[in-house]
Design brief:
The structure holds 2 protein chains of 2 kinds. Chain A is about 45% helix and about 10% strand. Chain A is α/β, with parallel strands linked by helices. In chain A, helix 2 (about 35-45) links the parallel strand 1 (about 30-35) and strand 2 (about 50-55). The radius of gyration of chain B is 20 Å and the shape is globular. Classes of the chains: A alpha/beta, B mainly alpha.
Chain lengths: ~300, ~290
Amino acid sequence: MQRLSRLVAAVGVITLSGAALPAAAAEPLRVVASFSVIGDFAKNVGGDRIALTTLVGPDGDAHVYEPKPADAAAMSAADVVLVNGLHFEGFLRRLAEASGTRATVVELTDGVEPLAAAEEGHAHEAEGDHGAFDPHAFQSIANAKIYVKNIAEAFCAADAEGCDDYKANAEAYAGKLDALDEEVKDAVAAIPPEKRTVITSHDAFGYFEHEYGITFLAPEGISTEAEASAADVAKLIRQVRHEKASAIFVENITNQRLIEQIASETGLKVGGTLYSDALSDADGPAATYIDMMRNNIGAIKAAVLGS
Amino acid sequence: MYDFLVAPFVEFGFMQRALAGSLVLSLSSCPVGVFLMLRRMSLTGDAMAHAILPGAAAGFLLYGLEIVPMTIGGLIAGVVVAMGAGAVSRFTVQKEDASMAAFYLISLALGVLIVSLRGSSVDLMHVLFGTVLALNDEALKLIASIAGVTLLTLTIFWRALVAECLDPLFLRSVSRLGTPVHFIFLGLVVLNLVGGFQALGTLLSVGLMMLPAAAARFWTSRVGPMCVLALAIGFASCIAGLLMSYHASLPSGPAIVLSAGAAYLLSILSGPRGVLRSRVRHHRHRTA
C-alpha cells in the first residue's frame, strides 16, 4: 500500500516536472565534492539536477583521509569535481591522477582572498601538504558566497540547459547566507570585546577570526597532523590565566584529550563542540553549513557569556 | 638555572603530569626493552603498533569512540599476535622475527578491513593514541598499574628470564619454566606497549622501550647493570626532552625520543663496548 502510494507520488512528480524540464529525468550531472561542507553547497545549488558523491563524509578529517576504490570510481565517472583548494585535501591530487578523470576539477577558493597560515602551521608546511595559506576559507560566510558562485559557474559550464536553475538556486542560497552573516555579526556584537578570545584544538578558524573579530587560540597548528609542543600548551595556559581567553572548545574531528587537559588545568569548562572541517551526520547539530555556523557561534556566545 | 630546569615543572600541572607519566613508563619499559633486545626482538614494538588495530577497530565498531573498549580490544589483539608468533617460533622451525611479521601483517590487514566496513574516515589511531602533554588521571593510573605489574613480574621471574634470554636450551634442560616464562614475558611486552600507546603515543612508548636499552648495551654486558643503566638513560631523556619541548617549542614526543637517540649515538662512539674504545684496546693488544 505504502509502496503504491509512493509510486503514484513519484509518477506525479515525473509528469509534473517533465513538462518543465525535459532534460532532468534523462541524465543528472555527476558531481563529486571533496568533503561534507562543499557537498552541502553543491546540494543547495544543484538541487535535483545533480547526482552528488561526497568523498570525506560527516565527522571525517580531510587532512588525513585515505581514499577508497569507490572514491576513484566516482571520480573517474564524474562530470564536475569540486574541491576546496589551497592544499586542504592532501589526498586529492593523487586520487585525481589515479582515477584518470576527464572532469574539470574546480577549486572553490578561486577568488577568495587567502589568509597566510598562522605561525604554528610551519611544522606541517615542511611536509608539503599545506601551502603557506590557511585553507579553511569557508569559515567566513562572505567566502562561502564565493564558493557558491564558483559552483554555479562550474555547473553552468558543464550543463548549459540547467544554468537558469543553478543561478536561481545559488541566488536563493546566497540570500540565506546573507541572513546568516547578519545573525553571526549580531551574536558577536553581544559579546564584550575583551572577552572575544577562545581556545580550540587546531587552527581552523582563521577566516572566522578575520571576518568577525573573535580570536581563536589553538595548541595544534593548522593541520590536525602536527603535534603540540610543551611551549605551545604553556603559552595557552598563561593566556587563560591572564584572562585573555574566556572559553575552550573541542572540535568534532580531533582528539579531545589535550583540550580537556588544558581545561582542567585552568578551570575553564569545555564549552561544547565546534564543527570546523566537517559537518555532523544528519541527526547532529551541524548537518548543513548554515546549521554548522549557527551551532558554532551559538556555542561560543553561550560559553563566553556564561563564564 | 632554576628558571631553566625547575620552573616549568612548578608552574604547570601538565608538565608535572608529563614528567611523572614518562618517568613511570620508563621504569617498567626500559628493563623490558633490555630483555627484548637480548632476545633479538627489538622491532616487536613497531610491529605491535600495527598489530593492535583490529582490536581497537572492533572496540570502535561496538562502542563508538570510547577509549576503554578500544584499549581493551587493542590489548586482546596484541596478546593474540604476540602469543601466536611466540607459539609458532617455539613449536615450529620458524624464528620469532618471521612469525611476528606474519602475524602482525594479518592483524593489520584485518584491522584495515574492519575500519573500512564502518566507512568512517576518522583516523582511529589518531584517537586511540595519547600524547604525553595530555595525561589525565586515568592515563596516569593506567601507567602506574602497568609499571607495578611489570616490576613485580620481573622480580619474581628474574633468574628464569635471564637464563631464557641467554641460553634457552639450558633453561629447558633444567626446568619446565622455559615456555611459560617466554609467554609471560610476551604478555608484559604487550601490556607495556599498549598501555604506553594509549597514554603517550606510539613513537614515545616504542622509543622509550628500545633506545635506552640499545644504548646501555654499549656500556656493559651484564643484565642487571644494563637494566639500571637503561633506566637512567630513559629518565634523563624524559627530563631533557620535556625541557627542550618547553624551551625550544618542539613537539614533546619526538623531543624525548631524540634525546634518547642522542644518548644512543653517544654510546656507540664512547661506550667501553662502542666503536672508539674497543678499537683502541684492540690496537694496543696488537702492538703489545
